[in-house]
């Protein structure tokens, strides 16, 4: 299944993708930089910045937990949180997920799927995952 992430809400899309992965499907998500996080830009930036800074709060020499800055990696991490990743079933499901910023050459002519349950309604405010990534310092 190849999904175009443009205009989809992050949490809704991630929950649907995680269910498909657990059912054994291979899922490819394109345009992850155009996935929307609902809420204000300041709130979303503060939330993800806190996660990145978390490693240096207690012990600066200890280098964990690592949290991604790129939009495709943030999406993968969101889906990973919805899978039973500590079990073999969850790890195998996570390996079936591919996420990309933009559309790679091999998927240029592929038929892209939209998921209507995860689409954005026009009245909500939100920010694109690509904008948050740039604020966090990602270069993509």
From TrEMBL:
GO terms for cellular component: cytosolic large ribosomal subunit. The keyword Ribosomal protein applies. GO terms for biological process: negative regulation of translation; translation. GO terms for molecular function: mRNA binding; structural constituent of ribosome. Gene3D superfamilies: Ribosomal protein L13 (3.90.1180.10). Pfam families: Ribosomal_L13 (PF00572). Keywords: Ribonucleoprotein, Ribosomal protein. The keyword Ribosomal protein applies. It comes from the Archaea. InterPro entries: Ribosomal_uL13 (IPR005822), Ribosomal_uL13_bac-type (IPR005823), Ribosomal_uL13_CS (IPR023563), Ribosomal_uL13_euk/arc (IPR005755), Ribosomal_uL13_sf (IPR036899). This protein is one of the early assembly proteins of the 50S ribosomal subunit, although it is not seen to bind rRNA by itself. It is important during the early stages of 50S assembly. Belongs to the universal ribosomal protein uL13 family. Part of the 50S ribosomal subunit. This is Large ribosomal subunit protein uL13. The lineage of its organism: Archaea, Methanobacteriati, Methanobacteriota, Methanomada group, Methanobacteria. The gene is rpl13.
